[in-house]
Design a protein that fits this description.
By secondary structure, the chain is an alpha+beta fold. The protein has 3 helices and 3 strands, in the order E-E-E-H-H-H. The chain has one domain. The chain starts with a strand and ends with a helix. Strands 1-2-3 form a 3-stranded antiparallel β-sheet. A hairpin with a 2-residue loop joins strand 1 and strand 2. It is globular. Pfam families: DUF5800.
Length: 65
């Protein structure tokens, strides 16, 4: 299972028991969008080669208060 925790400067990730951080700039470069417009599904696809995507994707701007 992959866990994502979003904040204003990036995403804390737990993937297969390994904790790491994806910085905002790294995500923007990888996806080609500004950070607030990236979706949780897009971040999950960066981390997990075969993610289990469920529900509607949410933009980071909707996740971060």
């Amino acid at each position: 299972m992959t866990a994502l925790s979003f904040d204003e400067t990036g995403v804390d990730v737990v993937y297969e028991g390994t904790d790491f951080r994806l910085d905002k700039e790294m995500i923007e470069d990888a996806v080609g969008k500004s950070y607030p417009d990236v979706t949780d599904h897009e971040v999950l696809q960066l981390v997990d080669p075969e993610p289990s995507l469920s529900g509607e994707p949410q933009r980071i701007a909707e996740i971060i208060p």
